[in-house]
Write a structure and sequence with these properties.
GO molecular function: kinase activity
Shape: globular
Strand order of the largest sheet: 5-4-1-8-9-10-11-12-13
Radius of gyration: 18 Å
CATH architecture: 3-Layer(aba) Sandwich
Organism: Geothrix rubra
Pfam families: PfkB
Oligomer: single chain
Distance between the termini: 43 Å
CATH class: Alpha Beta
Protein name: Adenosine kinase
Structural class: alpha/beta
Largest sheet: 9 strands, mixed
InterPro entries: Carboh/pur_kinase_PfkB_CS, PfkB_dom, Ribokinase-like
């Protein structure tokens, strides 16, 4: 069984107060798969250009990541350029070159169409719905990420695909724009009416909030001494969160709470270095040890 992920594999130019990287490996499917594959096999559907070479492919080697669905077509790969100030919660986009991603139409390999778990990364909701319709059978759960661009510019299509979704992962600004509610509790009720029963609100350095029909949960961000680059942290969180759920094959509230901690820990590794550098290096022992420390940190003894 595998976790199928649809998204982007790209190059990033990133500048923060602590350094700069040019043409570093990026993209939602990249961060997601490197994180999720720590817990469960992943299949990627994405597109790259002729400039995506062996050095980039090597990052995926030796991991349970199936790249059969990664298409290489003539042209240049998706390329994002952004910068952060000392407030690392929000990037300033300097340029976005869609390149081959502009014509991306996900076409699932036959073997992918029975994947039991599906993650729809942040792409056009029309394409997200096309992916759902290509599945030979409905997955056990479908999770989706989106952004303000699609909420504002493609809302009818987004509302249509949300009816098919079990888990929505967005940040607090996105959920408030989608629901027109400032209160996250009220926003969750509106999200439930749209389709998803589970809402995960990513809040950057302020942590994450989880809303389910059985109860709610909140966790802080894992405290770090050094943060160099937050690019990809949200996709890394989603990878850890959904990879863990696929591994244990459960979606009850206890499993979702544990998945929230796992996603937060995986995201904490990403921001410690630029691009995917830290994700490429971490060991299973480091993940287990940080998760144990994080669990102890937020546990409160009975009064």
């Amino acid at each position: 069984m595998s976790l199928l992920a649809i998204g982007s594999v790209a190059f990033d130019d990133v500048e923060t107060p602590f350094g700069r990287r040019e043409r570093a490996l990026g993209g939602s499917a990249t961060y997601f798969s490197l994180s999720a594959s720590r817990f469960h096999p992943v299949r990627i559907v994405a597109v790259v250009g002729e400039d995506f070479g062996p050095d980039q492919m090597r990052v995926f080697e030796g991991r349970p990541i199936d790249l059969t669905g990664l298409s290489r077509v003539p042209g240049r790969s998706f390329h994002w350029q952004g910068a952060y100030g000392y407030d690392l919660n929000e990037a300033r986009t300097l340029a976005t070159h869609l390149n081959v991603f502009a014509d991306f139409r996900p076409d699932l390999p036959a073997g992918y169409r029975t994947s039991p778990y599906l993650f729809l990364g942040n792409i056009d909701p029309v394409l997200q719905l096309e992916v759902v319709r290509q599945m030979a059978e409905r997955p056990k759960w479908i999770a989706l990420d989106t952004m303000n661009y699609w909420i504002r510019g493609a809302r009818p299509a987004l509302e249509k695909v949300l009816r098919e979704v079990d888990i929505l992962l967005v940040n607090d600004a996105e959920v408030r724009e989608l629901t027109q509610e400032h209160s996250l509790l009220k926003a969750y009720r509106r999200i439930q009416a749209m389709g998803p029963g589970v809402l995960v609100v990513k809040r950057g350095e302020y942590g994450v909030a989880l809303f389910t029909p059985e109860g709610h949960f909140a966790a802080p961000a894992y405290p770090l001494e050094d943060v160099f680059d937050p690019t990809g942290a949200g996709d890394t969180f989603a990878g850890g969160f959904l990879g863990y759920l696929a591994w244990i094959d459960r979606k009850d509230v206890t499993a979702l709470k544990h998945a929230t901690l796992v996603g937060s820990v995986m995201a904490s590794f990403t921001v410690e270095q630029f691009s995917t550098e830290r994700l490429e290096q971490i060991t299973q022992d480091e993940v287990r040890n940080r998760l144990a420390l994080f669990s102890d940190m937020i546990r409160v003894e009975d009064l």
